[in-house]
């Protein structure tokens, strides 16, 4: 049973190089806020961003 689960996860790329580049670009563009990664079955399926505007 455990071996079957391990094989399933090994077949899928958890995070692709393209996804990593998107995340890095978001980090560079957001001044205040958050980036949330949604993982399902060990695979990144969604990236959510929330940007805050600070009023002085």
Would you kindly provide a written description of the structure presented here, covering whatever features stand out?
The protein has two helices and two strands; from the N terminus they run H-H-E-E. The protein is elongated. Helix content is 41%, strand content 30%. The termini are far apart. It has one domain. The protein is an alpha+beta fold. The model has no long low-confidence stretch (mean pLDDT 85). The protein has a two-stranded antiparallel sheet with strand order 1-2. InterPro entries: DUF2292. It holds the Pfam family DUF2292.
Mean pLDDT: 85
Q: Name the structural class.
A: alpha+beta
Radius of gyration: 16 Å
Secondary-structure element order, as H and E?
HHEE
Helix content: 40-55%
The coarse silhouette is elongated
Q: What is the count of DSSP helices, taking H or I runs of 4+ residues?
A: 2
Low-confidence stretches: none
Major β-sheet annotation: 2 strands, antiparallel
Number of domains: 1
CA-CA gap between termini: 56 Å
Task: Tell me the total number of β-strands.
Answer: 2
What would you say about this model in short?
The chain is α+β, with helices and mostly antiparallel strands and 56 residues long.
Break the fold down into its secondary structure elements and pairings.
Layout: H1 2-11, H2 17-29, E1 33-40, E2 43-51
Antiparallel strand pairs: 1-2
Pfam families: DUF2292 (PF10055)
């Amino acid at each position: 049973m455990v071996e079957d689960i391990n094989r399933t996860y090994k077949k899928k790329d958890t995070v692709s190089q393209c996804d990593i580049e998107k995340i890095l670009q978001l980090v560079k563009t957001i001044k205040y806020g958050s980036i949330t990664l949604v993982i399902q079955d060990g695979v990144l399926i969604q990236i959510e961003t929330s940007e805050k505007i600070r009023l002085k």
